[in-house]
Amino acid sequence: MADYMRLRQICLVAPHLEPVISDIAAIMGLSICYRDGNVAKYGLENALLPVDTILLEVVAPTQAGTAAGRFLDKTGNRGGYMAIFCCEDPAARGAKANAMGVRTANVITHAPYHGVQLHPRDCRAAFIEFNHTDGSDDMLGTYPPAGPNWQKSIRKDTTLALTDVRCRARIRKGWRALGQDHRRRRDEGSGCPVLKLPNAAFHFAKGPVDLMTGLTFRVADVARVREAARAKGCKVEGDAFDLAG
Asked: Phi and psi at residue 25, in whole multiples of 5°?
């Protein structure tokens, strides 16, 4: 199998699932495709929205003492939590990360799905996961975390794509473990490092704490999205709005 690496999913965490997930759906013109009951064992609830072939997930703690809850406490409710990548061999990618000094935090195997999560303290900025679904190398193919028919929920009347992820952190070993699939370059405007994947780019800027700080979307009508965010009570500045931290 040829080597590949693509952004598959971004996970945000919020103190409560509502109204965050409904507000994102309304503002961005997206539809919920799945709520995964399996996350209950981690003390969480979730919902996922497809943005073309990338999934945008929001999770929220349902009990005290969860890793997600500790993350919210540490970051002051800033919501960028996980960056999830599909690849040809998660175990091999995880082993490569281990050899670089990045620990494995969790391994998930629910055939045909296999995922390897790296330790967030070694990655910083966001929890990194590599995963693969057997027999599904098509980005529109089977992807169990998004439910059996996630493709039917794709909408493109408002939001067309998730194009960029912004982080306030140095590129640490966990991110270098993405391998040779990315092109490391400098942002022409800020001069900050950028990791470029085939379907998205990760931008890294220096800051006092390590965080995933923003997502950039390509939309059909910027003004309409901006006004929808304002109508939901979001803070709007320029072509950006604040939601879920």
From this structure: -60, -45
